[in-house]
Design goal:
The chain is about 65% helix and about 0% strand. Strand 1 and strand 2 form a beta hairpin. The protein has a single domain, classed as Ferritin. Helix 6 packs antiparallel against helix 7 and helix 6 runs parallel beside helix 8. It starts with a helix and ends with a helix. The protein is mainly α. The protein has a two-stranded antiparallel sheet with strand order 1-2. It is globular. Bound molecules: Phenylacetyl coenzyme A. InterPro entries: Aromatic_CoA_ox/epox, Ferritin-like, Ferritin-like_SF, PaaA, PaaA_PaaC. GO terms for molecular function: phenylacetyl-CoA 1,2-epoxidase activity. This is Phenylacetate-CoA oxygenase.
Length: about 325
């Protein structure tokens, strides 16, 4: 084929891709897609997968110390759900031509991003409530629109993830509700946890729109459906009545609703703290990566055994044929 024919083919493919996006159709792994679209998806989906896997750590910290058998089994189920989310997402990313090993290596070698939120410590049981309510709540706000992401495997993975996140958010709210309606000391513990997690949960939505280099293109490709600030607004609006139901104070003392614009006016997010965490200098970054690396090394025998078993089965099938 001549290069002119190649170029004509590429123009036709691009037109087909653009038409599918314009028509709200899904792009599937077999379809032609622009290289930048593929790379953007690998970036976002793998970062998302890493977040789910690293995100197991702050809550796993409380499994052995949960205050009752019921709380312990709920927490184990939640942490296992996060592992499952990581696996669906790694699988979705693999349909774009990257391997699980490449993604894992990038994470444990410190070359990959994962959500800033998981670089904070969980010193009290109330942190389990605050994570469920605020962190899973923010995750739902961000992820429900991703169920309509233009890339089929990502959107479909998000449907099940969102259902599970709803249960997570509900259990977090319930932990906080019990604490905030318990003894004065329990209520103080709940307020303290919410004070520590509120601002970092707002940072989960990413930089403000004017500082978000990827948003415009990702929205044009219908990967993202709303901007970072739009989703942050939606989340704050969702939290306000829930703060009241919990009987807890919102840590943002400047928060108010502007009737004229229909928007929440918020206090200033500490973007310096956000960039420090992204640069690897958050309270628990080093610990999270160290733990992930150790878990990877400890699991080497499982991977080797699984590969040896798969090889044995393949040989058996070949000899039987
Ligand atoms: N932390 O141009 P944008 C969960 C990076 S899952 C770290 O706005 P984009 C469930 C961004 O990657 C939580 N990095 O980027 C759970 C980019 O870096 P790059 C994870 C951040 O992609 C609950 C740069 O800044 N959820 O919580 C953060 O258009 C409980 C510029 O930003 C997802 O991943 C951040 N907060 O928008 C699990 C959802 N924000 O790659 C366990 C899917 C931004 O250019 C327990 N992802 N960055 O070097 C998304 O929706 C998007 O990727 C955004 C960022 C909105 C996170």
């Amino acid at each position: 084929m001549t290069s002119t024919t190649d170029e004509l083919d590429e123009v036709a493919e691009q037109q087909r891709f653009d038409a599918l996006i314009a028509d709200e159709q899904r792009i599937e792994p077999r379809d032609w897609m622009p290289e930048a679209y593929r790379r953007t998806l690998i970036r976002q989906i793998s970062q998302h997968a890493h977040s789910e896997i690293i995100g197991m750590q702050p809550e796993a910290n409380w499994i052995t110390r949960a205050p009752s058998l019921k709380r312990k089994s709920i927490l184990i189920a939640k942490v296992q759900d996060e592992a499952g989310h990581g696996l669906y997402l790694y699988s979705a990313a693999q349909t774009l031509g990257i391997t699980r090993e490449e993604m894992t290596d990038a994470l444990i070698e410190g070359r990959a991003r994962y959500s800033s939120i998981f670089n904070y410590h969980t010193p009290t049981w109330a942190d389990m409530g605050a994570i469920g309510w605020l962190v899973d709540g923010a995750a739902i706000c961000n992820q429900v629109p991703l169920c309509r992401a233009s890339y089929g495997p990502y959107g479909r993975a998000m449907v099940r993830i969102c259902k599970e996140e709803s249960f997570h958010q509900r259990q977090g709210f319930e932990i906080l509700y019990e604490l905030s309606h318990g003894t004065p000391e329990q209520k103080r513990m709940a307020q303290d946890a919410v004070d520590r997690w509120y601002w970092p949960s707002l940072m989960m939505f990413g930089p403000s729109d004017d500082a978000s280099p990827n948003s415009a293109q990702s929205m044009a490709w219908k990967i993202k459906r709303f901007s970072n600030d739009e989703l942050r607004q939606r989340f704050v609006g969702m939290c306000v009545p829930q703060f009241e139901a919990l009987g807890l104070e919102c840590p943002d003392r400047d928060l108010r609703y502007d009737e004229e614009t229909g928007r929440w006016i918020m206090g200033e997010i500490d973007w310096n703290e956000f960039s420090e965490v992204l640069a690897g200098r958050g309270p628990a970054n080093a610990e999270r990566l160290r733990h992930r690396r150790e878990a990877h090394d400890d699991g080497a025998w499982v991977r080797e055994a699984a590969a040896a078993y798969a090889q044995k089965m393949q040989d058996r099938r070949r000899f039987a044929a």
